[in-house]
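Task card 7
Instruction: Convert sequence to structure tokens.
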Amino acid sequence: YVPDMTRTRIAALVPAVLESADEDPEIFTRILEPAGRELALAAVAVARSIEWPDRTLPLAFGGTFLCSTVPIQLALLQELRRRLDVEPVVSLVTEPVAGAVALARRALSS
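Output:
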């Protein structure tokens, strides 16, 4: 990473990465699926640290890359199910603040 490589610049690479993955399936298996599993490990760590009590696990997926890359989503969800024996309930969030609001609403309704 370099200082001028902002999140916006990285997000702008999403279409090129996905197009390349369409041409080379190995990009999915070597880059995208492991990325999903790594994101799941972060969620697992949080769920365990707060001793998440429920079988359902509310998640808010945000960011251009995660929201538009189904293989990452599927890898993340599969890894969560495997490690925590939970059923994730996903909201796709296109506005950054909306993620917190979606999780708060879901928590209040349960």
